Amino acid sequence: MTNDKNETQSHFRSIPIEVYREKFHAGDHTLVDVREYEEWVMGRIPGAIHIPLNDLPDHLTKIPQDKPVVVVCASGVRSLYGSEFLLQQGYPEVYNLEDGTHGWAMRRLPIER
Q: Which positions are catalytic?
């Protein structure tokens, strides 16, 4: 039997890029890029804020808790760890962006530099 209270307190899901683009729009969520600086400057998804994974604990005030948070990295692994960390910190709605910025670029979607 599952504990329904815990399931309703927080929401986590890995989502494909296509679902992200359909579901989220500018201003209705926070997109957090957890890659290292060297990766960030090479190109990023428009609208993302940059907080390297290891720096997340020190920069939680930059991530509002009152709207969904989507976490992205290069391929979806570090962002999964970042998503789990945010859930542990009480963020109620967190998504991991599958395929990361590499998948974004492979689909020829806009990249900021």
A: 73
